[in-house]
Design goal:
Blueprint: H1 2-7, H2 9-20, H3 22-42, H4 56-67, E1 75-82, H5 85-99, E2 105-108, E3 112-113, E4 119-126, H6 134-146, E5 150-156, H7 157-191, H8 194-218, H9 228-256, H10 261-288, H11 296-327, H12 337-345, H13 351-361, H14 363-378, E6 386-387, H15 399-410, E7 417-423, H16 429-444, E8 455-458, E9 464-470, H17 479-496, E10 502-504, H18 505-540, H19 543-569, H20 574-577, E11 585-586, H21 589-617, H22 622-651, H23 657-689
Helix pairs in contact: 2-3, 2-10, 2-11, 3-8, 3-11, 4-18, 5-6, 7-8, 7-12, 7-22, 8-9, 8-11, 9-10, 9-11, 9-21, 9-22, 10-11, 10-18, 10-21, 13-14, 13-22, 13-23, 14-19, 14-23, 16-17, 18-19, 18-21, 19-21, 19-23, 21-22, 21-23, 22-23
Length: 718
């Protein structure tokens, strides 16, 4: 213990106090969680607003429109098809008449017939802050019953959003309901005892609960995205279980080696506790890279992830040693007989030891073979395309989505559009109107925009004018981006001259968001890798290890990007996974997957390197230190990776493409990271580097240190 006393640092001092005052530490943790959860009830959460999403040229346009009170109202659309023209007209008239009687409907536009005469559309403009259109849906359903030969369907801004939110809620509820039992079962397999299996789940769950509570006051500094709670659950359970596994496995191993409970807790604190601090700092650094995007969504997600990781780290180095110190050997009770015996019979390192043998004996061949596999899996990423989510990325099983697609097909005027927004100088409204009318004519002569009478609106105070242009394209058509650029870079300057004008609207907003992410991606990748390099360099006092970490992280990211591109852009495994490829990746997913992957993989990396370094300090030669260190930690890494892969695989079964992409990308990437990268590339590189891996530091074994350690019971390894 002398060496641990010298190097254990903060985790050791905290563990001593916690183990010595277990119920005080546990009581303090529970009080913190209860107070944090109470904050969510006492403080209202500040969710993101439309202004938070303003980006680039379209952001300026949106701000001008809002300041002038010219925001387009939410609109519900009722599509009537089938039957005879007279029946369609009668049904549409009924909808319009009854719709005008609803208090939340501000205006019902006279029904219009499609150019081919086969459909009629009724547009109902809603009053501000309307979020429930069930009464209008009841009108639609009633008319449908009265006209069984017709197809009367409703879609629109509110109903589509509500349907998507309902589907996301169902998906997440299903995922969360399945993930907790699966996590508990995997922990039972890992420990063979009920209390030991429950502790990681308890630490993860309380960390998540506390973070969700703290999100409410924090949201007044960084507005909360609606999806941030789901991210907190995902990340919080992953790191909470990981950190608890690191600590518990080491404490059990030391008790099995003959140490008392207090000594075992202190050894775990000085070793695994240190690894938890390093990996926690690396995860936080990776998540902090998202702030460089400058987007409200990533700011919110980064803040939630950072807070939950920080709380999980605190819980792991405080309440975990307190529970272990208070429970003592009761942590291995009650035992599940079959699982306990199976757990004891798994040899140290298991499959990893058999895999490590050839890797350590032939490191060059292993490194070359692993590199070839990484390059092959990463190759598809060279053709990766990203784009904003649209109708093609939504589940077609949502009726409102399919209705919207049918409406766009029948009514070209409902296709995606762009707005040219102009701040009007005093006394120049007439000149601006004339210029915008000319712009409409110029745009109508191109292949991108519909021709017709100019749709120009001017604010009541005359300060802002808006020209709405409609493209020839549906929302998911890739030519929409080209139309926005043509309008922004050529048509608007030619028509407006020196007059300031911004191109906004949905098409421009989608383009600007994707362009921002594409532009910032290299900076975020660079910052994340640099921060993790610095943390690893400081933690292990080795420049070589820091650079090796960077290379291995790049390998993991390349594999993740390649798999995502192959599956979701090119449509590989569309059938088994139950989706239709839109031909691109949803723009925010590659960046988010990269950051999460780097952060979570650093858990394994720091844990494995700490164990290898510990063996090297105890006098083992480099090759044996690598083999023993990775064999000792393989059980923990396998268990932790299995939990995360299982949870992410559940997300791969959900209907929303974003969740499916996130699940598949992270599950496959973490599997390959925990096997190919950490079990082949890392040990091969460490063996080839030898003592140079720790440069400029030196690993000097204490005089008289035994090279061989006494064997431990098989179940205790890790």
């Amino acid at each position: 213990m002398n060496k641990l006393n010298r190097h254990g640092g903060v985790p050791l001092r905290i563990a001593r106090w916690s183990a010595g005052h277990p119920w005080r530490a546990v009581g303090g943790w529970l009080a913190f969680v209860i107070i944090a959860v109470g904050l969510a009830a006492a403080v209202p959460t500040q969710e993101t607003t439309d202004a938070d999403y303003d980006t680039g040229d379209s952001g300026h346009a949106a701000a001008l429109v809002r300041s002038a009170g010219m925001e387009a109202p939410d609109t519900e659309r009722i599509l009537v098809t089938g039957g005879t023209p007279a029946e369609r007209t009668a049904a549409a008239g009924q909808i319009a008449t009854q719709g005008r009687t609803l208090s939340f409907v501000a205006k019902v536009v006279d029904p219009v017939t499609s150019p081919d005469g086969k459909a009629v559309l009724v547009n109902a403009e809603l009053r501000d802050n309307t979020d429930d259109v069930s009464a209008l849906q009841a009108v639609t359903d009633s008319v449908q019953k009265q006209h069984p030969d017709l197809e009367v369907r409703q879609t629109g801004d509110v109903s589509v959003d509500a349907a998507i939110n309902d589907r996301v809620g169902e998906d997440l509820s299903s995922a969360e309901g399945i993930s907790l039992p699966i996590t508990l079962v995997l922990m039972l397999l890992a420990f063979g005892a009920l209390i030991a299996a429950g502790i990681p789940v308890l630490v993860g769950a309380t960390s998540v609960a506390a973070t969700i509570g703290l999100t409410a006051p924090i949201s007044h500094l960084v507005h909360a995205e609606p999806t941030v709670s789901s991210l907190i659950v995902l990340i919080g359970m992953a790191v909470g279980v990981d950190y608890s596994l690191f600590y518990l496995k080491r404490e059990r191993a030391e008790r099995a080696a003959g140490h008392g409970t207090v000594d075992a807790v202190e050894i775990a604190a000085a070793t695994s506790g240190h690894s938890i601090l390093v990996s926690g700092a690396a995860v936080i650094a990776a998540m902090a890279g998202l702030y460089l995007v400058g987007d409200v969504t990533f700011n919110s997600l980064a803040t939630g992830a950072i807070v939950v990781v920080a709380i999980a780290v605190i819980g792991s180095i405080t309440v975990l040693p307190a529970l272990l110190g208070g429970l003592g050997r009761w942590v291995d009770r009650p035992r599940i007989p079959l699982l306990w015996r199976l757990n004891r019979r798994i040899g140290r390192g298991g499959i990893s030891t058999r895999l490590l043998g050839p890797v350590v004996r032939h490191p060059v061949a292993a490194l070359l073979a692993g590199t070839v596999v990484v390059l092959a899996l990463s190759a598809p990423a060279l053709g990766m395309k990203i784009h904003q989510s649209n109708l093609s990325t939504l589940p077609q099983s949502i009726p409102q989505v399919q209705t919207y697609r049918d409406m766009e097909a029948a009514f070209p005027s409902q296709l995606v559009g762009a707005d040219v927004v102009v701040p009007v100088p005093a006394g120049q409204e007439s000149q601006v109107r004339t210029a915008l009318a000319g712009l409409q004519q110029d745009a109508g002569r191109t292949r991108d925009f519909l021709a017709g009478q100019p749709d120009i609106q001017v604010a009541d105070d005359g300060s802002v004018a808006v020209l709405h242009l409609t493209t020839h394209y549906a929302d998911e058509d890739p030519r929409v981006d080209d139309a926005v650029l043509h309008l922004r870079n050529r048509l608007v300057p030619a028509a407006m001259g020196e007059q300031t004008a911004y191109v906004g609207g949905m098409a421009a907003e989608n383009y600007d968001t994707t362009h921002l992410l594409r532009e910032r991606l290299p900076y975020v990748v660079g910052a994340v890798l640099l921060l993790t390099v610095l943390i690893m360099g400081l933690a292990f006092r080795s420049v070589v290890l820091a650079l090796l970490t960077c290379v291995l992280n790049l390998a993991s990211v390349g594999v993740a990007f390649g798999v995502l591109t192959l599956v979701f852009q090119h449509g590989f495994l569309e059938g088994p996974l139950g989706f239709s490829s839109p031909g691109f990746l949803i723009n925010w997913l590659p960046l988010f997957v990269m950051v999460v992957l780097v952060g979570l993989s650093m858990d394994y990396h720091a844990f494995v390197l700490s164990r290898v370094r510990e063996h090297a300090l105890n006098g083992l030669p480099p090759r044996l230190a690598v083999q023993r260190g990775i064999a000792d930690t393989s059980g923990v890494v396998t268990s932790a990776a299995t939990v995360m892969i299982s949870v992410f695989a559940i997300f791969a079964t959900l209907s929303m493409l974003e969740m499916k992409t996130l699940g598949v990308g992270l599950a496959v990437a973490i599997f390959l990271d925990a096997t190919l990268v950490r079990q082949v590339l890392l040990p091969a590189a460490l063996v080839l580097l030898g003592e140079r891996a720790w440069w400029p530091g030196r690993l000097t074994a204490p005089v008289g240190t035994r090279v061989e350690e006494p064997e431990r019971p098989a179940y205790a390894a890790g």
